[in-house]
Design a protein that fits this description.
With 136 residues, the chain is mostly helical. The protein has 5 helices and 4 strands. 43% of the residues lie in helices and 10% in strands. The longest helix has 22 residues, at 9-30.
């Protein structure tokens, strides 16, 4: 199962992100009390296999915009490989004014004078699995 997940990371991170977005939308529509009751019921029906929802869960993350066109003017480059969890989860509802972690990291690296480069085919890579990531 782990190998299948690792071979389908784009599908898994996209599904996790969309799932979190749907749950966030339901929270907005239903409200916290109804969402908590609904979540308890779903968890009970699943035999406690589905995690309990809480109002601090993050929204789904937006896709990372890869731009690997290197400029020759900046000799300081860094390869950034955000983990699948950071590619799936955005900020929580109570931190809407915050940047998602992957965007914040890029801003920090740029502020430090680094040009950020992502591995080729990033969304299909799993950081917990040995794979060859080709960097342009």
């Amino acid at each position: 199962m782990a190998d299948w997940i690792a071979m389908h990371m784009n599908l898994m991170t996209s599904a996790a992100s969309k799932g979190l977005s749907v749950v966030n939308f339901l929270h907005i529509v239903l409200g916290t009390k109804i969402m908590q009751s609904f979540s308890r019921g779903v968890r009970r029906l699943s035999g406690n296999r589905i995690p309990m929802w809480n109002p601090f869960m993050s929204k789904g993350d937006s896709a990372i915009r890869q731009n690997n066109t290197m400029s020759s003017s900046n000799p300081s480059k860094v390869v950034y490989f955000p983990s699948c969890i950071n590619r799936s989860m955005g900020v929580s509802r109570d931190h809407n004014d915050e940047l998602q972690l992957s965007d914040k990291m890029v801003k920090l690296l740029n502020k430090g004078g680094y040009e950020v480069i992502y591995p080729d085919n990033l969304n299909n890579l799993c950081c917990g699995r040995h794979s060859q990531a080709k960097v342009i």
